[in-house]
Amino acid sequence: MLLSSIFEGNQNHYSDLEPQRAPIGIFDSGVGGLTVLRQLYRQLPNESIIYFGDTARLPYGIRSQAEILQYVREILTWMQQQQVKMVIMACNTSSALALETVREEFNLPILGVILPGARAAVQQGKRIGVIATPATAKSNAYRQAILEIDPDVQVWQVGCPEFVPLIEQNRIQDPYTTDVARSYLEPLIQQQIDTLVYGCTHYPHLEPVLRSLLPSSVKLVDPAVHVVAACTQELDLLGLKNTHPPQPTRFAVSGCPQQFAQSSLPWLGCTPMVEVVRFTDAAISHIQKD
What residues sit in the active site (predicted)? Predict the structure, then answer.
C-alpha cells in the first residue's frame, strides 16, 4: 500500500484523536527540510509528521518577500486542513521573511529556524559566519538575531544562490559544487571566522564539502538540531508530546513527486511515497498520488 494512500480522501484523519497524537507539520522549498526531519526522528521518535516540499516554486532564496508570504500562507492553510498540532518552518528564507506575520494570522504554534540557530551560534564563538540564500542574507535576520543575543560578537553573511539548486539536483559530489563552495567560503575564511552557521536547511547536506574547505577549528552550527530542541520544549509546555507509536511519515510536494523521491533517497535511506498538492487561487487540491 502506498504510504500516502493511508490519508486518501480523509483530510481529517487525526480529527477524532486526542490532540497529542496529531502530526507535526514541516515544510521547506525542497529536500532541505529533511535535515529537520532527521532531527525529529532522533529527538522525538513518537511524533507523527507531515512533510511538505514546495518543489514547484524553489528556490525560495531568490523570491520577493511578498511571494514568500503568499507561499507560506498557502502551505499553512493546507497544514491546518491536515489537522497538524504544530508547524516547523524548516526554511530559513520563510523564517526570515514571513514568520512574524503568519504567527499573528494562524492559530497554531509555528517555529522558525533562525532564533534557535542564532542562540547556538553565540554559544559556540565570537567570529560568526553565516551562509544563506540571497533573500535570507539580504534580510539580515541572522545578524540581527545574533547581535540581539550578544552585541559583542562579529557576524559576516554570504549569500549562496547556487547551493540549493545543486543540492536539489543531487550534485553534491560534483567538482563544480566544491568550486562554488570555495568561492562562497573564501571571504569568511579571510575574516578568520571561528563558527559557521548553516543559514539554509539544505546546507547540512554539503557538510563533507564544506568541512574539506574550512579550517578544522571552525565549528559548524546546524539550526535543525536546535529548532527540534525548541520544538520539544514547546510540546512539553503545551502538553502536546505524543507518547503513542507514530503514524508513518506523510510526504507531499507541489512539483514532481518522482524527482523528490529520488533526491530524498540518500537522506532517508528509503524511497518515500509522495503525493502532490497544487495551490491555486481558488483552492488547494490533491491531484495526484505516486
Answer: 91 (proton donor/acceptor), 200 (proton donor/acceptor)
Has 91 been annotated as catalytic? yes
Which residues are documented as binding site? 28-29, 60-61, 92-93, 201-202
Residue 231 designated active-site:
no
Question: Which residues are known binding-site members for substrate?
Answer: 28-29, 60-61, 92-93, 201-202
CATH of the domain at 75: 3.40.50.1860
Of 91, 160, 256, 270, the active-site residue reads: 91
Cβ partners under 8 Å of residue 227, min gap 6: 36, 39, 88, 90, 111, 112, 113, 116, 117
Q: Beta strand pairing status for 86-89 and 24-28?
A: parallel
On whether both 179 and 219 belong to a single domain, the answer is: yes
Query: Is this structure's pTM higher than 0.85?
Result: yes
Q: What are the pLDDT digits (tens) for 117-160?
A: 999 999 999 999 999 999 999 999 999 999 999 999 999 999 99
Given 181, 198, 223, which residue is the final one in a domain?
A: 223
**Minimal CA–CA distance to 60: which of 159, 156, 142?**
159
Residues 17 and 99 in one domain: yes
Look at residues 223, 247, 270 and tell me which one is the last residue of a structural domain. Answer: 223
Closest-CA residue to 130 (of 60, 220, 36)? 220
Q: Do 255 and 120 share a domain, yes or no?
A: no
Do 224 and 34 contact (CB within 8 A), yes or no? no
Which residues 6+ apart lie within 8 Å of 47 measured at CB?
23, 24, 40, 235, 241, 242, 246
The one catalytic residue in 160, 200, 231, 270 is 200
**74 and 127, same domain (yes or no):** no
**In the chain, how many domains are there?**
2
CB 92 within 8 A of CB 30: no
